[in-house]
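Page 42, continued from yesterday. The earlier attempt failed because a stray header line got pasted into the input along with the sequence. Redoing it now with the clean sequence only.
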Amino acid sequence: MPDLLLDDLMPWAVGGLRLGRDWVAAPDPAALRARWAALTAAEGAERERLFRPSRSRTPAAGAAALPGQRSGTARFADEPGPCPDPVRVLREPFDEQWLLPDQRLIDSARPELWRVRDEHQLFLVETPDLLVTAHLPAGRLGRVRPLHRRPGGAEPNLAPGLLTLLGERYGGWVTPEDVLCWVLAAGRPGPRGHEVPLTADPGRWRAGLELGHRLLTVQVRGGRGGEPPRLPGGRRPYVRSAVPAWPHELSYDAGTESLHLGGGTLSPVPAGAWEFEVQGVRVLDAWFAARTAHRRPGTDGLEALGPAAWPQGWTSELLALVTTLALLADLAPERAAFEPGPLLPGAELRAAGVLPAPRWARRPASVLDHQEEGPGGQFALL
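This time it went through. Structure tokens are written below.
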């Protein structure tokens, strides 16, 4: 059954957050608080200019509070309220940044994703090679498939009956995370979406789980209380010479395996980490560009507010990112060579009622037992 799709296995998918204005997200949470302060201190036409209105969001509109967040719901122009605490998000592939969680500022905030965001949740993002994060994806990343349909990991976002069928087939307990690991190992982009063949061989299933678990551990980078991954053989990258107050460029020396931030040096940095790309864009270049964007000539408005000196925490983040990319580069040949073996017959999935997934499985789970604050402080009807 070579044409089994990810959409068949994980039926509920949501489009990514559409921010509408770049200033609501940043690599530095202090910059977001400074932007909020500048916006709320401005008045009239200046506040309108800084806000950058769109058809979806203007200062004259209110909006419901995002689930789990404390923010104002009145018209922003009348009562902005205090700055909400920035939350960690995945802004670009492997780039964890911060977001102001105020729906009045975000064109399409996807409240259904915020309702299921907790310490148990993982989000599968449909980039070409598939990406998993413990943080809410916020940007132009692709469709998002939460692993769980409800908070607390109570209901898997999987075709009904799939776990039971796979457990019977492979002779053991199969968890939602097992299926996610298999997807990471066996999933491949296809003309109709990501194809995920299911093996009929318990041995190949176990091999896929082992590979997928390693991929998952690296990608979540210590999220959900786990240990951050490390390079084998003691090849942990370090700061060899201090990063200057503001590095103006990022470069790489393959001969010494050194990454240079201006006059600062990090090593050893494997070539696989430096060369790692997503959709033709080098990840380390994009990561550095996001942290220097506020200093580019021509940048104005709230986007121009950012740190005056390079935060030490960014260097620590860069070291962790280098480790992540190097490990993924090392796993890439094994993943490319992985074969699922003989495939599970489609007739067996249909006979078990796994295919096709019911329509309700493609919609968010009911939240009728849940209350949220709507625009103007009224309770939202869900």
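Notes: Residues 378-382 have pLDDT under 50 and may be disordered.
Reminder to self: strip header lines before submitting.
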